[in-house]
């Protein structure tokens, strides 16, 4: 179990890992590898140097990278595991890197014909032009392009608020910030799961209702500020459209194993894809495990599926893997 990391989602990663380990049960022998906030590696709670950490990772049957955000969910660790030749759960290097960058994600998905949220990408030193302000209108959301858990995201309802919102977003991604018009509509998530036989399935849509006055920010996600409705109360045709779009996004990004796709559902009924999460939260309160539990797949069964898929993927890609070796 690889978790922690140097991103702002370090604590979320630790919580995800704790939930995963608790639900693996006695069928698995687990080695815990923690990356500290300072980049220090630990194996079973003992500090080790980087070389020793690589040896431990390389010796595993399967690595479960329960990492969120930069330095973990962005292809960095995935490239390391590919180099070591060890099977691992979840998305590969390209899908992880593309999925982490919201601007790149939207470009790829729009090229595949999916409807995505509009907006302007500002790189370091860029400013929002008056013409862009007129085109975007208010309110807008300002967000770092490469961060998760809504860290650094602000809602701007007056243009004088923009500089402060940009400064906050650039704390989490100095190189690239998105300014997006607010999409008025219901917020719905769809989980996608790849089974070990290669079958890709979308779960029942989950609708998010924020209980406070704000939006689905970090506090709403992790401090009980939102309610989930699973399945969302939608017309069957709308449910089918959301699930189809989620699977198309999975395929367009070249994903494997899992992804969560977040949509807005405006009054016109056509889903607007907001963003994707190539390793969504895995705490007991997280959307992804809850969706599959509602679909009849328990948390332990979900983990079995993902681990078995990692072993299968390693075998078909030529990496060293022993079928069934994930289990004791």
Task: Walk me through what this model shows.
The chain has 328 residues and is of the alpha+beta class. The chain folds into 3 domains: 2-90, Rossmann fold; 97-116 and 183-303, D-amino Acid Aminotransferase, Chain A, domain 1, CATH 3.30.470; 120-181, ATP-grasp fold, A domain (Dna Ligase, domain 1), CATH 3.30.1490.20. Helix content is 36%, strand content 20%. It has 11 helices and 15 strands. The protein has helices spanning 10-24, 50-58, 76-84, 93-100, 102-111, 130-136, 162-172, 218-222, 236-252, 287-294, 299-317; strands spanning 2-4, 33-35, 41-43, 46-48, 65-66, 120-123, 140-144, 154-156, 176-181, 186-194, 200-202, 206-210, 226-229, 258-265, 272-277. Strands 10, 11, 12, 13, 14 and 15 form a 6-stranded antiparallel beta sheet that branches. Strands 4-3-2-1-5 form a 5-stranded mixed beta sheet. Strands 6-9-7-8 form a 4-stranded antiparallel beta sheet, with helices on one face. It is globular. The two termini are 15 Å apart. Residues 321-328 have low confidence and may be disordered. Keywords: ATP-binding, Cell shape, Cell wall biogenesis/degradation, Cytoplasm, Ligase, Magnesium, Manganese, Metal-binding, Nucleotide-binding, Peptidoglycan synthesis. Residues 106-308 form the ATP-grasp domain. It is found in: Cytoplasm. This is D-alanine--D-alanine ligase.
User: What's the number of structural domains?
Assistant: 3
The termini sit apart by 15 Å
Largest sheet: 6 strands, antiparallel
Shape: globular
